[in-house]
Amino acid sequence: MRHTLAVLVENNPGVLARVAGLFSRRGYNIDSLAVGRTENPAVSRMTIVVEGDDRVLEQVTKQLHKLIDVIKINDVTVDEYVDRELVLIKVSADSGQRGEIMQIADIFRARIVDLGRRTITLECTGNDGKINAFEESLRPYGIKELVRTGKIAMLRGNRFTNLNTNGNREDEQ
Amino acid sequence: MKMKVADALIRCLELENVRIVFGYPGGAMLPVYDALYHSSGIKHVLVRHEQGAVHAADGYARASGEVGVAMATSGPGATNLVTGLANAYMDSVPLVVFTGQVPTSQVGTDAFQEVDITGITLPITKHNYLVKNPSDLPRVVKNAFHIASTGRPGPVLIDLPKDVAQTEIDFDYPETVNLRGYKPTFRGHPNQINEAARLIAAARRPVIYAGGGIINARAGGELLELAEKIAAPVTNTFMGLSGFPGDHPLFLGMLGLHGTRYANLAVTECDLLIALGARFDDRVTGRLDAFAPNAALIHVDIDPAEIGKNVRINVPIVGDVKQVLQALLPLVEKTDRAAWLARVAELKSAYPLSYGRENGLKPQYIIEELYRCTGGDAVVATDVGQHQMWVAQYYPFKRPGTLISSGGLGTMGFGLPAAVGAQLALPDRQVVLVTGDGSIQMNMQELATVREQELPLKIILLNNHALGMVRQLQEYYCEGRYMAVDFKFHPDFIALARAYGIAGYTISDSAEVAEVLTRALAEPGPVLVNCLISTEENVLPMVLQGQGIDQAVSR
Ligand SMILES: Cc1ncc(C[n+]2csc(CCOP(=O)(O)OP(=O)(O)O)c2C)c(N)n1
């Protein structure tokens, strides 16, 4: 099963290498990893999507906790959460196809962010399923370039992954 | 107070009560060595190779219970530390290790003697730091000592660029540590401890399987009390040896690959296995599905990631093993378990540890005599190989922390520098190194350190003219095709010792053992005893690859 981990880390140089190194060294599979800063400039947040059964996940969580720079880990998948990903897709589009492509964009509530002579670049946000469907619908036109940010996720409602609260079950023993 | 970072570093070490640092200088470390020059409180031990420095700091830490400190210059100095760091990491030894680095402006440019040592040591340190901001240094050192010595101990490396070391800062040593991502759990969960007590009360055939955690947590007393109270036999991992008195009737010796048959069979027959500060290493468990097949498992460990890593645990308890045992002891009843102990006694007499005494000089006999001559009271360092296993089998350690050996990494060449560190930590104790003719040649240069520091170290060289342990593997797994294991040339070890100002003795016959050992041990200075043993002697019993520990080749 796929799990989405929200991981708060010290915003120290090398922290990404520590986390990435841990995954490759121990043979855990990362589906995606997104990093950025949070409301607190000293803290970064990683959203890591990992594939594995409960035992693997337990090991991943425990090994992550052993890193001194890892402050907090939430497996948001065990709770209600929202997740989003952003994709930029550049497709070939001659003038005859533009209308169709714009219709598809409409359906997915995507936006056109650039127009070239033979290309359209679209931006779309959503969860996995939506992004995948969007990509599939554009495939017939010829995808020239595609980039996804990786998933970010947040617990719903009055639950948090931050320094002060125990928003979710803290995955510590 | 204003001072240079290099001086601040030395000041930090003084405030951490560091008495000895092991090191080797170089260009990038000039400022730090210049600062050491002015320190009256800290003794610097100049080794002959940086690997020697880190192993010596390791041996010092194990013998003293303090944090070991080593330092080396950038580039090759730093890379020479790698094996030692990995060794300390695997065996959970608290070290703080400093490396010089090229000036910050040159970092990342492949400058002369630049290596990315924090990158290289990422997977073999508990944590590491590259100090870029001079004013961070005091806090980094404070954190490093805290991280190295608490929770599951381990090595921490601090990489210090030369220009940073020369920068002046306002020195202020923090009193407290605030690491929000690092909060080891010391007290076990009370519900889990109750559950453990319930399993212990219900068990009919319990065995305690105790590892190095007992020694790190200084929980030998609690372990003894628990074993006696619940009448459970105790087996040690290699790292756990000395954590339980070797001459105690409840002691089963070491388990696993070269464990005693009776320890392995008791574990196989037990209905409750109580793992204390041990990690179900593959050298202990053999084939996993045949390991303690009928047992419920209690696992106490300070490192949550060790629990459930290799085997499924019924009662996991994260905590300091000493604190957990203190909480558990009042919850268990005094029992005698006569039937189980009778069965264990039966196993002990049916499958004793033994060796052929008939012909020639036997290494096992030398170790037994060493035990007699030292009253079991020596601090024994070893190298890696057959001689190490013979020590594990035939030297029944009495006091916690008296075995100093490379368990997890199995580093040949660890022994001599580690013994140097141990002897410096315990100048008044008898420190003995048991080594092999292969291993000693891996860090032999440290004989100079032994002499220079005037250490009364006693070196027992079990010289089988071979890389015995690998030879044994080739005998069993390669049908006796011996490849690259027999030494066709050896230096004259006695002359070599003499060249370093170390006294030398040779033993070639069993009849000489007691007398020569007694004389050698009584010498005030360092001694090397070259024991000429047979090449063919094997370490038995031995669990073959892929087998359960209930199976074994024995004599
Ligand atoms: C640095 C290192 N290289 C290689 C090995 C593999 N190895 C394990 S035991 C051994 C032989 C050790 O020989 P010696 O020190 O003479 O001890 P003996 O087994 O003969 O007692 C070797 C080569 C190792 N453990 N460490």
Automatic annotation (TrEMBL), chain A:
GO terms for molecular function: acetolactate synthase activity; acetolactate synthase regulator activity. It comes from the Bacteria. InterPro entries: Acetalactate_synth_ssu (IPR004789), Acetolactate_synth/TF_NikR_C (IPR027271), Acetolactate_synth_ssu_C (IPR019455), ACT-like_dom_sf (IPR045865), ACT_dom (IPR002912), AHAS_ACT (IPR039557), AHAS_small-like_ACT (IPR054480). Pathway: Amino-acid biosynthesis; L-isoleucine biosynthesis; L-isoleucine from 2-oxobutanoate: step 1/4; Amino-acid biosynthesis; L-valine biosynthesis; L-valine from pyruvate: step 1/4. It holds the Pfam family ALS_ss_C. Residues 4-78 form the ACT domain. Gene3D superfamilies: 3.30.70.260, ACT-like. Chain A, domain 2. Keywords: Amino-acid biosynthesis, Branched-chain amino acid biosynthesis, Transferase. One of its GO terms (cellular component) is cytosol. It catalyses: 2 pyruvate + H(+) = (2S)-2-acetolactate + CO2. One of its GO terms (biological process) is L-valine biosynthetic process. Its EC number is 2.2.1.6. NCBIfam families: acolac_sm, PRK11895.1. Catalyzes the conversion of 2 pyruvate molecules into acetolactate in the first common step of the biosynthetic pathway of the branched-amino acids such as leucine, isoleucine, and valine. Dimer of large and small chains. Belongs to the acetolactate synthase small subunit family. PANTHER family: ACETOLACTATE SYNTHASE SMALL SUBUNIT, ACETOLACTATE SYNTHASE SMALL SUBUNIT 1, CHLOROPLASTIC. This is Acetolactate synthase small subunit.
TrEMBL record, chain B:
It catalyses: 2 pyruvate + H(+) = (2S)-2-acetolactate + CO2. SUPFAM superfamilies: DHS-like NAD/FAD-binding domain, Thiamin diphosphate-binding fold (THDP-binding). Pathway: Amino-acid biosynthesis; L-valine biosynthesis; L-valine from pyruvate: step 1/4; Amino-acid biosynthesis; L-isoleucine biosynthesis; L-isoleucine from 2-oxobutanoate: step 1/4. Its cofactor is Mg(2+); thiamine diphosphate. It is an enzyme of class 2 (transferase). InterPro entries: Acetolactate_synth_lsu, AHAS_TPP, DHS-like_NAD/FAD-binding_dom, THDP-binding, Thiamin_PyroP_enz_cen_dom, Thiamin_PyroP_enz_TPP-bd_dom, TPP-bd_CS, TPP_enz. GO terms for molecular function: acetolactate synthase activity; flavin adenine dinucleotide binding; magnesium ion binding; thiamine pyrophosphate binding. Its EC number is 2.2.1.6. Binds 1 Mg(2+) ion per subunit. Binds 1 thiamine pyrophosphate per subunit. CDD domains: TPP_AHAS (cd02015), TPP_PYR_POX_like (cd07035). Residues 193-328 form the Thiamine pyrophosphate enzyme central domain. It comes from the Bacteria. GO terms for biological process: isoleucine biosynthetic process; L-valine biosynthetic process. Residues 3-118 form the Thiamine pyrophosphate enzyme N-terminal TPP-binding domain. Keywords: Amino-acid biosynthesis, Branched-chain amino acid biosynthesis, FAD, Flavoprotein, Magnesium, Metal-binding, Thiamine pyrophosphate, Transferase. Belongs to the TPP enzyme family. NCBIfam families: acolac_lg. This is Acetolactate synthase. It comes from Desulfotomaculum copahuensis.
